[in-house]
Write a structure and sequence with these properties.
The protein is an alpha+beta fold and 215 residues long. It has helices at residues 2-7, 18-23, 34-65, 67-74, 80-91, 122-126, 160-177; strands spanning 26-27, 30-31, 96-99, 118-121, 182-183, 188-195, 201-210, 213-214.
C-alpha cells in the first residue's frame, strides 16, 4: 500500500486515504522512512482494533446491565459522543504506555536501563477522584471532561474521530434494530488492579474474555 502511495503521490486532502497521508509525513523537514510508516500503520490498525473491540464490548455490557441508560440514549441521540467519552474513560483500553530515551530505541530490550523509563499511567489519570469523585461508576450523563484514554496533544490518537463515528453507528443499529438484548450467560471479565496518585486501589476491566448476547 505504501509502495503505491509513494509511486503516485496524492496531496489532495479531499481524496487522500490513510496510506497517502502517512507516506507524506515529514518530521523536522525530513521524510519519514518506510519502517516508520509501517510503525505508524501498526499503531493505527492494531491499537485501533483493540480500542474499538473493548469499547464496543464494554458499551454493550453496560447497556444490558443498565436498561435505563439504553432507554435514555434511544430518545437522546445527541448524547452518543458524551456516552462514548465516558465509556472510553472508564474502560481505558490502553492502561499504560512506556516512554524511553530516543537513543535507546535501537537498543535490545535486555540492555535497556529501565531506571530511565517513564511509564504513563492512563488508568490513574482517568480515575483521578479530584476530577471524577465516583470514578469507578459509569455515568453517561456526566459533563464531558478531558481524559487521557485517547492520549493528549502531540500524542493524541489519530483514530479518535473515526472511533466515535464507528461506535455511534453501532449504537444507532443496536437501539433501532435490536431493542431487546440480554446476556446469554454470565459475562467472563478479567479485572485488574492499580493505584491512583494517592495510593488508593483502582479496580478496572483488563479485558472481556467472554460476553454472549441473546436477542
Amino acid at each position: 500500500m505504501f509502495g503505491a502511495a509513494e509511486a503516485n503521490p496524492n496531496t489532495d486532502p479531499e481524496t487522500q486515504d490513510v496510506w497517502d497521508f502517512v507516506s507524506q509525513i515529514r518530521i523536522e523537514d525530513q521524510q519519514i522512512t518506510r519502517e516508520e510508516m509501517q510503525g505508524i500503520a501498526n499503531v493505527l490498525l492494531a491499537g485501533g482494533r483493540d480500542m474499538v473491540i473493548k469499547l464496543v464490548t464494554g458499551l454493550i455490557w453496560h447497556l444490558i446491565q443498565n436498561p435505563h441508560d439504553r432507554d435514555f440514549l434511544s430518545s437522546n441521540r445527541d448524547w452518543f459522543n458524551l456516552t462514548i467519552a465516558e465509556m472510553v474513560r472508564y474502560l481505558s483500553p490502553l492502561p499504560k504506555m512506556e516512554r524511553v530515551l530516543g537513543e535507546d530505541v535501537a537498543v535490545p530490550d535486555a540492555q535497556h536501563d529501565t531506571s530511565k523509563y517513564v511509564l504513563l499511567n492512563f488508568v490513574s489519570a482517568n480515575y483521578d477522584r479530584d476530577v471524577w469523585p465516583d470514578a469507578d461508576v459509569v455515568d453517561i450523563r456526566r459533563d464531558r471532561k478531558p481524559n487521557l484514554a485517547f492520549g493528549l496533544g502531540r500524542h493524541s490518537c489519530l483514530g479518535r474521530n473515526i472511533t466515535e463515528y464507528e461506535v455511534g453507528a453501532l449504537l444507532t443499529v443496536l437501539l433501532d434494530s435490536w431493542p431487546n438484548w440480554t446476556f446469554d450467560g454470565e459475562p467472563d471479565i478479567a479485572w485488574a488492579a492499580d493505584q491512583d496518585k494517592d495510593g488508593n486501589v483502582i479496580r478496572y476491566i483488563d479485558r472481556f474474555k467472554k460476553l454472549y448476547v441473546r436477542f
